[in-house]
What we know:
The protein has 161 residues and is an alpha/beta fold. The protein has helices spanning 19-22, 27-40, 53-62, 82-91, 129-160, and strands spanning 2-7, 44-49, 69-73, 95-99, 121-124. Helix 2 runs parallel beside helix 5 (129-160). The active site is at residues 22, 99. Catalyzes a trans-dehydration via an enolate intermediate. Pathway: Metabolic intermediate biosynthesis; chorismate biosynthesis; chorismate from D-erythrose 4-phosphate and phosphoenolpyruvate: step 3/7. Homododecamer.
Amino acid sequence: MKIMVIQGPNLNMLGVREQNVYGPMKLEQIHEQMRGFASQNGIEIEFFQSNLEGEIVDKIQECLGDADGIIINPAAYTHTSIAIRDALAAVSLPAIEVHISNIHAREEFRQKSLIAPVCAGQISGFGPFSYHLAMVAMLQILNEIKAMKEMQQKKQQAGQA
């Protein structure tokens, strides 16, 4: 199993920017915690961060055939990017949208996500722990997909016997 973690604009500034909203933890510290969870659960994990919308779209498209699921924090693009939304819909991989802050308790313009409708779910408001919750959720989704595929294979084999 492989999970691609895609981080949007300004997340490279975690630990520096608006600590009252996002906390003191740096992005690399969050990734290190995610690596630990992935290692304990036999998951391959890769990280990507960009401030550029097109690069994020390219990375999502590259996931097709290379990753089993996507955890994405589109950051400010959450509220504006039809391109990222369309890329996620196009690859049809399980995706989970993550936010450190509770976007629904913030400014009105941050409360609408264009990305959430094409994701399996959205996790927001738990600080950096939101990423851990996303890892647990993605592991569950991927295990369910694997179990369904195995069941379908057994049915096919039984039908051929």
